[in-house]
Amino acid sequence: MAPRFPTVPVLLLLLRFGSKKSCYDMARGQQKIQSQQKNAKKQAEQKKKQGHDQKAAAKAALIYTCTVCRTQMPDPKTFKQHFESKHPKTPLPPELADHSHAWQN
């Protein structure tokens, strides 16, 4: 009895994938791609629905701008501290002069 050799398609699959186990994974390849695309679409919809952008929120919080160096600050107290430390010879701007009584110790 002559030894049995694998058929040509099996040999091609073995050459391409290296083992018989991998050729079975090929059947799930299309399903895997579809699943990844579906998941990516779902993630994009979730992100769009969430709609929260940290950069935009942080930028919106910076409402005070130094008139000398154009640095932005979130609140008048920080603005005053910045102005006194970075620009000590420059007089306080009018928006800080209004709030100066609130932080005196």
UniProtKB/TrEMBL annotation:
<feature type="signal peptide">
    <location>
        <begin position="1"/>
        <end position="22"/>
    </location>
</feature>
<keyword id="KW-0963">Cytoplasm</keyword>
<feature type="domain" description="C2H2-type">
    <location>
        <begin position="64"/>
        <end position="86"/>
    </location>
</feature>
<feature type="compositionally biased region" description="Basic and acidic residues">
    <location>
        <begin position="42"/>
        <end position="54"/>
    </location>
</feature>
<keyword id="KW-0863">Zinc-finger</keyword>
<dbReference type="Pfam" id="PF04419">
    <property type="entry name" value="SERF-like_N"/>
</dbReference>
<keyword id="KW-0810">Translation regulation</keyword>
<feature type="region of interest" description="Disordered">
    <location>
        <begin position="28"/>
        <end position="54"/>
    </location>
</feature>
<dbReference type="GO" id="GO:0005634">
    <property type="term" value="C:nucleus"/>
</dbReference>
<dbReference type="InterPro" id="IPR026939">
    <property type="entry name" value="ZNF706/At2g23090_sf"/>
</dbReference>
<keyword id="KW-0479">Metal-binding</keyword>
<dbReference type="InterPro" id="IPR007513">
    <property type="entry name" value="SERF-like_N"/>
</dbReference>
<keyword id="KW-0678">Repressor</keyword>
<feature type="compositionally biased region" description="Basic and acidic residues">
    <location>
        <begin position="78"/>
        <end position="87"/>
    </location>
</feature>
<dbReference type="Pfam" id="PF12874">
    <property type="entry name" value="zf-met"/>
</dbReference>
<keyword id="KW-0539">Nucleus</keyword>
<feature type="domain" description="Small EDRK-rich factor-like N-terminal">
    <location>
        <begin position="26"/>
        <end position="62"/>
    </location>
</feature>
<keyword id="KW-0862">Zinc</keyword>
<dbReference type="GO" id="GO:0008270">
    <property type="term" value="F:zinc ion binding"/>
</dbReference>
<dbReference type="InterPro" id="IPR045230">
    <property type="entry name" value="MBS1/2-like"/>
</dbReference>
<keyword id="KW-0732">Signal</keyword>
<dbReference type="GO" id="GO:0006417">
    <property type="term" value="P:regulation of translation"/>
</dbReference>
<feature type="region of interest" description="Disordered">
    <location>
        <begin position="78"/>
        <end position="105"/>
    </location>
</feature>
<protein>
    <recommendedName>
        <fullName>Zinc finger protein 706</fullName>
    </recommendedName>
</protein>
<dbReference type="GO" id="GO:0005737">
    <property type="term" value="C:cytoplasm"/>
</dbReference>
<feature type="compositionally biased region" description="Basic and acidic residues">
    <location>
        <begin position="96"/>
        <end position="105"/>
    </location>
</feature>
<dbReference type="InterPro" id="IPR013087">
    <property type="entry name" value="Znf_C2H2_type"/>
</dbReference>
